[in-house]
Amino acid sequence: MARTTQFFEQGWSHGETLGARFNAIQCREAAMRTTEQMSITLPNKMAEFVRDKVARDDYASDSEVRRNAPRVRRERDRAVEIWLRDQVVPVAQALCDNPGRALSADQLRAELKKHRTRRG
After folding, report:
1. Is the pTM higher than 0.70?
2. Concatenated DSSP letters for the chain?
3. Residue 100 gets which letter from DSSP?
4. What is the maximum span of the chain, computed from C-alpha positions, in angstroms?
5. Domain of 26?
């Protein structure tokens, strides 16, 4: 009975259990975090790549390599989105608007051959 009184004095509601109170604290702490711990499994070749990056002093630790990977992927995805939006979609729309601008397969091959010849 003294234990129940102690819980109410600490602001616990009637019927609240220690487990429920602990879970509420965990949830509040999780909401305040800016990071989340994750565990990953890599194929042997990727793990070797990570170790090599650290060994060559490209990164301070294997954790740093793994943290950087999503960042690099996000930047790459963003670059692809910009390329699609700014270059591919306008060209596709121009071809839809004026299909006569399109090259045939033979015309394209000839243009590519001229381009390669000019580049040497």
Report:
1. no
2. -HHHHHHHHTTPPTT--HHHHHHHHHHHHHHH-S---------HHHHHHHHHHHHTTSSSSHHHHHHHHHHHHHHHHHHHHHHIIIIIHHHHHHHHH-GGGPPPHHHHHHHHHHHHHHH-
3. G
4. 93
5. 1-37
Specify the amino acid at residue 119.
R
Do 33 and 83 lie in a common domain? no
Clarify whether residues 23 and 81 are in a common domain: no
Taking 60 as the threshold, does the pLDDT of residue 12 lie above it? no
Assess contact for 35 and 46: CB atoms under 8 A.
no
**Cβ(12)–Cβ(21) below 8 Å:** yes
Which pLDDT band holds residue 34 (cuts at 50, 70, 90)? confident
Q: Is 14 helix (H, G, I), strand (E, B) or coil?
A: coil
106 and 54 within one domain: yes
**Domains identified in the chain, total number:** 2
